[in-house]
Amino acid sequence: AKEPLAKMAELVSPITRQVSTEKWKAGTAVADINLKDVEDCLIYDRRGVSFLFKSLYQDSKSVIIFVRNFLCYSCKEYVDDLSKVPRGALEEAGIRLVVIGQSSHQHIEPFCLLTGYSHEIYVDPKRSIYLKLGMKREETFTDSALPSPHVKSGLFMGQIKSIWRAMTSPAFDFQGDLHQQGGAIIAGPGSQVYFCHFDMNRLDHMPISWLLQLAGVQQSLDFSPKPKIMHV
Predict the structure, then answer these.
(1) What's the burial of 185, exposed, middle or buried (CB within 10 Å: 0-12/13-18/19+)?
(2) Model confidence, pTM
(3) What are the structural domains of the chain?
(4) Which listed residue, of 101, 113, 176, 199, carries a Cα 20 to 30 Å from 135's Cα?
């Protein structure tokens, strides 16, 4: 298991800049995507039941978050904050909040227990949607790739947590391609895409409050760091 662990321990240059909402707006490029290319791709729920990807946005507006992998510490901490989004705020705005990973479906339940996430979540184990939409593989650190305001752990401790979770998982695997990056889409009803962002690296998440406001959620949400028990 030394070689896989070595892969997980690969370090990259950390980004420590703090950015404002205005910089996010100014620094975000909207990708030109066509959901017709992926509407018939299959996604799977925690029971392994398959659905067409288009079922997520056909009849309602949806905020769809693609994460790197379920072991990734930055994705885990991002979903920690997604779990704080009140269901009532989404229902009032008629918005669906969806997370998509790229592991096998067996990893969904443990990930939800770890993060407290109770909204919709599915997996794309073959990465069909990731690949067809052109999401990045490998990380790029540039001035335009802004750091996630939702990631609390530093790079070293984050890597240690990821490795520990891999070692203590019932099935030792990486719960997805380690090099695959994620993204965020606001789409629907129908195939209309309102917004799309493909992450440049593990810290390049879109701020949750900004995404929800763009989708039409009126309630103001606070994701400021508060003391809490840290899980690994």
Answers:
(1) buried
(2) 0.73
(3) 35-215 (3.40.30.10)
(4) 113
Residue spans of beta strands (DSSP E) within the chain = 42-44, 50-52, 61-66, 95-101, 120-123, 183-187, 193-198
**For residues 66 and 75, what is the distance between their CA atoms, to the nearest angstrom?**
9
Q: State pLDDT tens for residues 203-216.
A: 677 889 899 999 99
Task: Identify the helix (H) or strand (E) that includes residue 160.
Answer: helix 155-168
Q: Which of 116, 119, 124, 136 is nearest to 63 (CA)?
A: 119
d(CA 116, CA 82): 9
Residue 117 exposed, middle or buried by CB count within 10 Å (0-12, 13-18, 19+)? buried
Question: Tens digit of pLDDT for each residue in 147-203?
Answer: 566 566 555 454 555 555 555 555 555 556 777 888 999 999 999 999 999 987 766
- Whose tokens are 């290319």? That residue is 37
Would you say how long the chain is, in residues? 232
Instruction: Indicate if the pLDDT at residue 74 is higher than 70.
Output: yes
